[in-house]
Amino acid sequence: MERENRRERRRLIGGIYPPAADLASLRRTLTLQRTPPHGVVSLEDIVRFARAPGSFESVLITFGDAHVGDGVVTLRGERGSLAVSYDASVVGVRVERTPDVDLAEGPTAITRVIFAASDPAQELAVRLHLEPLPPTPPTSR
Question: Which CATH class is domain 3-132?
Answer without folding.
Answer: mainly beta
